[in-house]
Design goal:
Helix content is 49%, strand content 6%. It has eleven helices and four strands. Strand 1, helix 2 and strand 2 form a beta-alpha-beta unit. The model has no long low-confidence stretch (mean pLDDT 94).
């Protein structure tokens, strides 16, 4: 395998400067982001707090019913000194499913059967809508928290966590996000190294993906994970998820 070196401290400092440049160019120094208590949102929040000051960072916790680790989300906000708010999306989620079910009673309505994966994706989409509402209401940008590893294998939700105004982590693999986080003393180490989960399915990210984040990192940075089966799985997921990384296709009748 080829050698690949990553300077976490240099990357951290460049991203802090990029956040400042982005917000200054648009004349807005406030940012809103969802705080899950995991590494990605924690590191993104810490970068924003360094760049803009904690008083200009608004962390929103968005539990869908009971969230066992919501204390981690509160801890992130407290450690960084950022503003915080909790909005439960559980009632919205239930109301959406109930509305779809109720619509099926209309004469002539086409059938819509319950679909587990579709239901799982409701949460990220409701979170995005809630964050967009808050960001516009207070005059702030919405900061994304997805990383390159997730985007590569399509482990993200279209119109959900892929929707944001800027994303400081979008060019970093999951392992690189951890490395950057570990250079920031204001973040609890155990939260930076916390096992990633979607908080919805009850499984870890790696269990759902069938590959490890180390394998995804090596596939991206070195060209291979060192495991042919893992490479094939990652390549298939990358191909299947390309539509999530693109703007909607516009069909041009004038070409």
């Amino acid at each position: 395998m080829a050698e690949y070196r990553f300077d976490a401290e240099k990357t951290r400092d460049i991203l802090v400067q990029r956040i400042r440049e982005f917000t200054e160019s648009a004349g807005c120094a406030r940012v809103v982001l969802g705080i899950s208590g995991g590494k990605d949102s924690s590191v993104a929040a810490a970068l924003c707090a360094r760049a803009l000051g904690p008083e200009n960072v608004y962390g929103v916790m968005l539990p869908d019913g009971e969230q066992a680790d919501i204390a981690d989300s509160r801890r992130v906000c407290q450690c960084l000194g950022i503003r915080r708010r909790t909005v439960s999306i559980g009632a919205m989620h239930r109301d959406l499913l109930a509305a779809v079910e109720e619509s099926g009673r209309e004469p002539g309505a086409f059938p819509v059967e319950y679909h587990r994966e579709s239901d799982i994706n409701v949460g990220p989409r409701l979170r995005m809508t809630t964050l967009r509402y808050i960001a516009q209401a207070i005059g702030a940008f919405l900061c994304g928290t997805g990383n390159l590893s997730e985007a590569t294998v399509g482990y993200c939700t279209k119109d959900g966590d892929t929707s944001c105004d800027f994303n400081p982590l979008g060019r970093l693999t999951s392992l690189e996000v951890v490395a950057v986080g570990l250079t920031m003393a204001e973040l609890p180490r155990e939260l930076v190294e916390k096992t990633p989960t979607d908080g919805l399915s009850g499984k870890s990210d790696e269990e759902r993906l069938g590959v490890t984040y180390r394998q995804i990192h090596d596939f991206i940075r070195l060209g291979t994970s060192g495991d042919d089966d893992a490479d094939a799985r990652i390549a298939q997921k990358e191909k299947a998820g390309r539509h999530k990384r693109r703007l909607p296709t516009v069909l041009d009748p004038f070409e």
